[in-house]
Amino acid sequence: PGLKGKLGLNVFKESGKSHIRIREGKEKHPQLAKAVLVCPAGLYSQNSKGEVTLSSDGCLECGTCLIACGRELLDWEYPEGGAGVQFRFG
Ligand code: SF4
């Protein structure tokens, strides 16, 4: 099996639908800088203006960014009513 097989079924979404978004107007919120640090897939980046951007290609759906930043900053749409993703706290 290739890499894809090892990673399992749900790791990479191939639908291309972005389900995590930075809420409008929150791009410069200092708390968002945490997401840049914690995202294991390195999907957040901060530009020289202090704005954080997110590319959701390759998102692992680990939920870390949501835990770090909260729903006031991030809008997370569950693909299937929340059934698909398990959060691990701690
Ligand atoms: Fe990164 Fe995980 Fe957030 Fe996806 S859910 S953007 S992989 S921290």
UniProtKB/TrEMBL annotation:
Gene Ontology terms for molecular function: iron ion binding; iron-sulfur cluster binding
Keywords: Electron transport, Iron, Iron-sulfur, Metal-binding, Nitrogen fixation, Transport
The organism's place on the tree of life at top rank: Bacteria
One Pfam family in the UniProt entry: Fer4_ETF_QO
SUPFAM superfamilies (UniProt xref): 4Fe-4S ferredoxins (SSF54862)
InterPro entries linked: 4Fe4S_Fe-S-bd, 4Fe4S_Fe_S_CS, ETF-QO/FixX_C, Fd_FixX
Keyword Transport: yes
Ranges where the 4Fe-4S ferredoxin-type domain occurs: 50-79
Ranges in a coiled coil: none
Protein family (similarity comment): To ferredoxins from P.putida and C.tartarivorum, ferredoxin I from A.vinelandii, ferredoxin II from D.desulfuricans.
Free-text function comment from the UniProt entry: Could be a 3Fe-4S cluster-containing protein.
Protein name (Swiss-Prot/TrEMBL): Ferredoxin-like protein
Source organism of this protein record: Syntrophothermus lipocalidus (strain DSM 12680 / TGB-C1)
